[in-house]
Amino acid sequence: MRTPIDLNTSRDNVKEIIVWAEQRSGRLAEVSREIITKAVDLAENLEGTVSAICIGDDCTLLGKELISYGADRVFLVEDSRLALYQSDVYSRVVADILFERQPDIVLVGGTSIGMDIAPRVAAKVKTGLTAHCVDLYMEYIDGKDQLVQVIPGWGGTMMVKIVCPERRPQMATIRPGVMEKGQPDFSRKGNIIPVIPDFSEDNFGAKTIEFVEEKSNRGSLEDTDIIISGGFGLYSSGGFALIEELADALHGEVAGTRPAFDHDWITEDRLIGQSGKTVRPNLFVSIGASGAIHYTTGFVKSKIIVAIDKNPSAPIFDIADVGIVGDLNQIVPCIIAELEKQNNQD
Q1: Is the pLDDT of residue 213 over 70?
Q2: What's this model's pTM, rounded to 2 decimal places?
Q3: Domain 5-203 CATH (choose: 3.10.250.10, 3.40.50.620, 1.10.3430.10, 1.20.1250.20)
Q4: What's the fold here for domain 226-345?
């Protein structure tokens, strides 16, 4: 039996896009801002509206922030027991709202939490789910407005377009960092709608007690302007020492490819690509990586891409703004020496 919910609003006939807006410790996840912006763009093509669902303890300010990024209405679910993500209860509440609203599209950020709640909700509302999307757009197909969902496929060798022609809502998770985040407009007006779910302690079969964030000596990849990323080509150098030296000289952050992670040269939070993070720094330097699409999809929107690889036919040079062909063990030390000389002069 579905949980009774007071939505305090009537459903209209306008097509609706609903975004599940993830929050942690009273702060919106960055991907929530990104997909709200994308939802606004999709809604213009759909001639529809954008709504958001925000669940937590005290979320009123987050509701106002979501409206500033383009939401027309925010369904606010507040309860002290929901301060931390609770898998069963969160998915149940979201599914009940979707049953009431009957939206055309539902978007969820592809975080660890988003990847947990999305399939649970999709199963409850009996629709399909496309995961790890790197692009979304509307297309009129077979007499219907269809959401085209783009993902890297076949081992990252091509982009695959997926549609859900029969079931509604059309549902997708979006990789963090792949969508442009808009600018907030706090003068925007929208509706904040309290949602009052009816649940008891018995609904909390398993409880999230706390989140513990891993400590790192380096900063966040999402917040830095410069990233130095290495691949398996660093094997001849014995590891990531050159990458770390160059990152220090440029005051940047270290990242790497899946093979670099597999060799324990980087931690998982430094992994770039389809199975890692998507970033868009001002400068991205790729060293010793051939440039398979499952790697490049993680940084292709960087402002400037510099690539260093010994293979002149490496795919990385197809997307690089500056390409250097040669032995990284000779090139990188020269760059570091020149940077240090410039730093000393300053």
Answers
A1: no
A2: 0.73
A3: 3.40.50.620
A4: Rossmann fold (3.40.50)
